[in-house]
Amino acid sequence: MKALEIDDDGVVTLLSDVLEDLGVHNARLLLAPAEDNRNVRETVIVDAEDDDAIRPGALVMLIGARGRAALPALRRIVADRPTAVAVKGNERELEAAAELLRPTGIGLVAVAPGLRWDKFESIALDRVRENDVLENDGRFSDVPGESATSVHRDLFAIAQTTATLTNGHVVIEDPGNKVLAYSPASNDVDELRRLSILARRGPEKYQKLLKESGVYKHLQATEAPVHVEANLDAGLRERVAIGIHAGSRVMGYIWLQEGAEPLAANTDRIMVGAARHAAIELVRHRNEQSQSMREDRVSSLLSGTAQVHSQAQSAGIDPSKPAALVLISAGGLSQSAAGLQLRRGELSKVASIHAAAYRPGAVVGALGMETAIILPDLDPLKSLPAINRLVNTIVRDATTHLHFQVQAAVGPIVPRLDALHATLDHVRSVLKVMEATPEVRVASYSDVETTVLTRELLELLESRTTLRHAGITRLCSRYPEFALTLLTYLEFFGDVNRCAEELAVHRNTVHYRLRRACEVAGLDLQSADERLLAHLQIRLWTYAGTKG
Question: What's this model's pTM, rounded to 2 decimal places?
Answer without folding.
Answer: 0.56
